[in-house]
Design a protein that fits this description.
heterodimer, A: mainly alpha, 434 Repressor (Amino-terminal Domain), two-stranded antiparallel sheet, 7 helices, 2 strands, 9% strand, B: alpha+beta, Cathepsin B, Chain A, Four Helix Bundle (Hemerythrin (Met), subunit A), 6-stranded antiparallel β-sheet, globular
Chain lengths: 131, 337
């Protein structure tokens, strides 16, 4: 990549920092330059984030249909999975899976809900009264 | 309390932490490309049967911590590295370091990193930063991918140091043990060691998912993605491949440009005429990686959706694999005097 070809496309990076790129100058020597972003990777990030949104919407539908507990919404919204939630809360993985059943989740004690609340940065109340 | 610490922005977090910490310890010749090359950071792996954020597990860089450890070892600098099970002890240890005027490298998770905008917060646990001071409840942070220094509250720092999931940092902290000057002769030998290690790894490891063979493996998988996953998910998989090679913290093109820069800088220490020519090859390879990213983006943007487009992408990677094999083999053939 030539230094003059370092992409400067508007991207979510603008909220944050410019990034260092290595590129060659007119003599073929490497120099660093700063980039605002590149459309190709802004798009890659964009569709990945869309997919996260999609998963959250799917979780909402399943919750509304009574298939899973609200736990799934928070797992998806935080881009987590069952092993990761288990690691953060200290519950066993099979316990987390069990808590995904609506009838089990609604009878959980405040103490257990508190562990989820801490990981997802919400209150126990929000977990109990979803929407 | 604040240590006089020089923050230099870098393309990759661990290179930056390594360069900045060693600079502080007296190794003033070190640059980011040199740290990356000496630490043999260039890499490729595609782990089958494992998913990262719901996509393929691909990495263009070596395991977290290796660049720092290898660079220090090659330069004869002793390293202090500690993990913690207790959050209190982790903080006490960090505070003791700062009290001793010792900036400390920390491995952290990105997801709860408050100064990152939301778009960049993923469960990625191999980010590195330097803590270089404390003001009240606030830790002063030098994050090498940022243009300027920043800060984190004690609670926020604790949270990222004890992120969970794959490659959990477990409060890991590291720094060079003593202040030490390094001779150019030592740098020279370290460069040779780094090149040999990387070239051997990329071409001669007999594991079909590592190095050049790993790139071929990915190329083979891409051919099957459309059929087995459907166009939408296959696009997401390609987006993941692009992000691993291009996202902030890679210097672009899966670190290949940084490596080319390393070979150019190596030439200043080792006047071997093959080095600049091979550096040019890596520049070409980097450009090929970027061209493959453009092809991938046409797929995940929905402009190209047919099997032949996936085949093209696959062929591009095979071409890259061939070029990388030639380049690394050329490095292996160099006679070091």
């Amino acid at each position: 990549m030539k230094k003059t070809d370092i992409p400067q496309d508007p991207s979510p990076l603008d909220k944050f920092t410019r990034e260092v790129c290595y590129a060659v100058n007119e003599n073929g020597e490497y120099e660093t330059g700063l980039s605002r972003g590149w459309q190709v990777k802004a798009d890659a990030l964009g569709i990945t984030l869309n997919d996260v949104q999609q998963r959250v919407e799917d979780a909402r539908k399943k919750i509304a249909a009574g298939e899973v507990s609200v736990l799934l919404f928070f797992i998806e919204a935080n881009m987590m999975d069952v092993p990761m939630v288990a690691a953060y809360t200290g519950f066993w993985q099979w316990t987390v899976k069990r808590h995904l059943k609506p009838q089990v989740f609604k009878n959980l004690s405040d103490k257990k809900l508190q562990k989820y609340a801490e990981v997802f940065k919400v209150s126990v109340n929000e977990l109990r009264n979803f929407e | 309390m604040q240590i006089n610490f020089k923050h230099i922005q870098s393309a990759h977090c661990e290179n930056g932490v390594t360069t900045n910490l060693l600079y502080h310890a007296g190794v003033t010749q070190l640059t980011e490309p040199l740290a990356f090359g000496i630490g043999a950071g260039i890499f490729y792996i595609h782990i089958p049967f494992m998913k990262v954020n719901g996509g393929p597990a691909i990495s263009f860089r070596t395991m977290p911590g290796y660049i720092f450890s290898r660079t220090c070892k090659a330069l004869g600098v002793e390293v202090v590295r500690k993990k913690f099970s207790s959050k209190e002890k982790a903080q006490q240890f960090l505070d003791a370091c700062l009290a001793n005027n010792q900036p400390a490298g920390c491995q952290v998770g990105v997801y709860y990193l408050t100064y990152f905008p939301e778009e960049f917060r993923f469960h990625f646990n191999a980010h590195n930063l330097v803590v270089y001071g404390k003001e009240g409840d606030r830790y002063l942070i030098s994050d090498p991918v940022m243009e300027t220094v920043t800060h984190l509250s004690a609670a926020d720092l604790e949270r990222v140091r004890f992120a969970k999931g794959a490659l959990a940092p477990e409060g890991q902290i590291y720094y060079p043990k003593q202040v030490k000057q390094v001779t150019n002769e030592q740098i020279r030998n370290a460069i040779i060691k780094g090149i040999k290690h990387a070239a051997w790894f990329m071409t001669e490891t007999p594991v079909p998912i590592l190095g050049v063979a790993g790139i071929r493996f990915t190329a083979g998988r891409i051919r099957t993605w459309r059929e087995s996953l459907g166009v939408r998910r296959a696009g997401l998989y390609l987006a993941q491949l692009v992000r691993m090679g291009e996202e902030i913290g890679t210097g672009g093109a899966g670190f290949r440009f940084v490596y080319a820069a390393f070979l150019q800088q190596a030439h200043k220490y080792i006047p071997n005429d093959n080095l600049p020519a091979i550096a040019d090859r890596f520049t070409e390879i980097g450009d090929l990686w970027r061209a493959s990213s453009v092809q991938a983006s046409a797929v995940y943007k929905g402009r190209l959706t047919e099997q032949k487009d996936f085949d093209t992408m696959s062929d591009m990677l095979l071409h890259i694999a061939d070029k990388e094999k030639e380049a690394f083999k050329a490095l292996l053939k160099i006679k070091w005097k």
